[in-house]
Amino acid sequence: MSGTDSAWTDTHTGRLSPTTRSALVVAGLDPESVVAVIVRALAEDLPGWGLADPAPGTDEPGAVDATSAATVDAALVGHGGLVSRATGTVAGLPVLAAVFEAVLGRAVTVTLLAQDGDAVTPGTTVARVNGPVRGLLTAERSALNLLCHLSGVATQTRAWVDAIAGTGAAIRDTRKTLPGLRALEKYAVRCGGGVNHRMSLADAALIKDNHVVAAGGVAAAFAAVRARFPHLPVEVECDTVDQVGEAVEAGADLILCDNMSLAELRASVAIARPAGVRLEASGGLTLQVAADVAATGVDYLAVGALTHSAPALDLGLDLEPGRPPVPVSAGAPPRGSTVEES
Questions:
Q1: CA–CA dist 123, 142 (Å, integer)
Q2: Euclidean distance between the first and the last CA atom of the chain, given in angstroms as a whole number
Q3: Choice among 65, 116, 235, 258 that is catalytic
Q4: Rounded to an integer, what distance in angstroms lies between the CA atom of residue 50 and that of residue 173?
């Protein structure tokens, strides 16, 4: 991150309300890291970013939302709802609040009417916003891009979790994430009922086929990792049942069974289970076969599609000019959380 980016991140992190900061932390997200993503997103819309309107006659190209600056009176205040257009699982509501607050600070009020992980249907209002219309429109696309994408990941994950319900296995993500969005996407996986694999290459070792080739075998690769990083969890990717036996004997904590048939998975479970070694199935998985794979006794199904192929969940902002007829913080349902700038 450049010095300029860092300065913008510090500035706009300071605009977050205590409630939004707390919600991000509770979600396992670092507020500064989230705002860094938001800053980059907003800078794509405003390359010469200056969110406060310049003096009349000094508009710089790329520094303001040209359409809103030309058509919306600077004093106009509006309110509206973030509404789902489809059925799915919502994720990223604290991030949504952070986008509007990063742009407008204490001038905006965001009220969350749902919780991340909630099921939504067409017409469900998940949040309300109230503030200067120019700023709301400036923030709208970045807020929706993040909310719709994260909700899509959560929705996709929920479908997989539901498909293997009752088997005892869990759905797990991979590192097949969009650059810069890993923490947010893995959070969305959790909202959908899935569990996370390692966040980075430093969190755990995963010995894959190319490592095995380079080291001269499964046992040699495992021994090399154990020697250099004795306290790091080690997972070994295996393509055959024989390799599973070798990995178990070597002392692997977790074995990834890559592109194995159901019969091979059952045989691998029979080898690994008595040794207390967990198994993860990966490769060629689909929703149609998920339950059968889970029924073999594996502990996890690793699904890259949770993040790399999740379609966005369609949500939109329905905005109206003027302040709402009652304060937006009034009458919030018990499960919702009100996010206001202090």
A1: 21
A2: 29
A3: 258
A4: 37
Q: Using one digit for the tens of pLDDT, what is the confidence trace for 206-262? A: 999 899 899 998 889 999 999 999 999 999 999 999 999 999 999 998 999 999 999
Which strand (E) or helix (H) includes residue 132?
Answer: strand 125-132
Task: Centre a 10 Å sphere on the Cβ of residue 74 and count the other Cβ atoms it contains.
Answer: 11
Angle between helices 262-272 and 241-250 in degrees, nearest 10: 20
Copy the structure tokens of residue 82. Answer: 């973030």
Residue 208 annotated as catalytic: yes
Between helix 3-13 and helix 31-45 the angle, nearest 10°, is: 110
Say what the pLDDT of residue 330 is. 37
Quick: pLDDT tens for 113-126.
999 999 999 999 99
Q: Is 186 a catalytic residue?
A: no
**Tokens for 145?**
């891009």
Task: Determine phi and psi for 218, rounding to 5 degrees.
Answer: -60, -50
Is 60 catalytic? The answer is: no
**Domains along the chain with CATH numbers:** 3-153+311-340 (3.90.1170.20), 161-308 (3.20.20.70)
Is the pLDDT reported for residue 321 higher than 80? no
The dihedrals phi and psi of 132, each to the nearest 5 degrees, come to -60, 130
Q: Please tell me the pTM assigned to this model.
A: 0.88
Checking DSSP bridges between strand 88-89 and strand 119-120, what pairing results, if any? antiparallel
- Give me 98's structure tokens: 């952070």
**Are 185 and 203 spatial neighbours (Cβ–Cβ below 8 Å)?**
no
Distance CA 200, CA 265 (A): 27
Query: How do residues 191-203 score in pLDDT, each as one tens digit?
Result: 999 999 999 999 9
Residue 90, amino acid:
V
Q: Which of 116, 118, 237, 299 is catalytic?
A: 237
